[in-house]
Design goal:
Helix content: over 70%
Largest sheet: 2 strands, antiparallel
Amino acid sequence: MEENKIIENKELNIWEALIPVIALVGILAYNVLIYGDDALSGSNQFVLLLGAAVAAIVGFRNKVSYEKMIDEVGNNFKSTTGAILILLFVGALAGTWLISGIIPTLIYGGLKILSPSIFLPATVIICAIISIATGSSWTTSATVGIALIGIGGTIGFPLGMVAGAVLSGAYFGDKMSPLSDTTNLAPAMAGAELFSHIKYMTYTTVPTILITLIIFTIIGLTRETTGTADTAEILAAIDASFNINGWLLLVPLTVILLIVKRTKPVVALLAGSLLGGLFAIIFQPDIVAKIGGSDILTFESAYKGIMNALTVDTAVETSNATLNDLFTAGGMKGMLGTIWLIMCAMVFGGVMDAIGALARISRALLSMADSVFGLFASTVASCLALNLTASDQYLAIVVPGKMFSKAYEEKGLAPENLSRTLEDAGTVTSVLIPWNTCGAYQAGVLGVSVADYFVYAIFNYISPFMTLLFAAFHIKIKQLADKN
């Protein structure tokens, strides 16, 4: 990630750099108006390619070769290889965790333990703890996040609301964890030390998560839900369809332990998928046999049942209609739409980088930073612009980090100011953009569109405002030691 380069193009002016952005945002807005939630089914992906085509036309006018654009697109594809593999294994894991009874067991236990009045703030806290321990908001969503979505749905909360609570906690933990890649990347780009960066982030991050918890607590206390009286039928339906057993929890605990031990996420998720399949054969043989197309469990039906759960659509029917909607999984096939979106986003981001548009937009934002607050505001705007145009949170950290580090130094500001702002505006806002890799991933994994969870991802959209508030009132703005 640290090797990401910024391509300069002195012939490109700011208006030419903005033409593809304006075209993309305009067409996307109209497309979403026409298609609504179905926009991510394919039309948004093609709109991203149209945006790339507009950027390519601008590039040809400025003598940027087709080969250079393709090379940058290829570099972008290479940078998302890990994310695509993770997505495929998340789909596989969701399938085996469903038929093994792991997800139903988590939902069953959650319904017994979590009161509707405290469910939302508890969701934030649980996801924050898991994300700090693992250093990964993606892993948190793919494991405990999926279970909490199921629990919240059965209690009666809108899935977008639960997803917002999951993401608020997951991204808080991701920001504060020394195991997180973005938490290591931001200080590396700004020239700060890791633990000094984390300590300095607490000044803006802790107030933001407290505000988030207060809002979710108020929502939980004031919103009418299904309540405990109506969960008896749901619990009975789960119990009748699955063998609910505490031993099943060994699988998610193993995956979390592997991540804490800094095992590569792909390896941990593969292990979780295979363990889920093994536990499915042990604890849910009838379900495995049925998915394998047989009435009895044989080696062949077991193989087919597990392989189907890993790769294609599977569903377990119960006596409860709500549960029938929840107890479905798409396997690796279910992630192909998200992967398609990421690939199209990388085409747009690659062409924008190749023609020099990303660097030109960042320079324009930097030129407006004539005060300390202006510098912070320009950094925030640059991070948001990169998340929108490059469709990748790493570029939203790398490009502004490289562009603004000298300006912070010239104003006598410690690099922790820049690294904190990169996280507050770059890391957490990526999930709010449907065509960004993070937004596409989280929507695909949680099964909730960005439009549905956007307003409830409270921590994510308050964070950039909090960092600007601190800058405006000069709160905890660390100076360089030689300019104090």
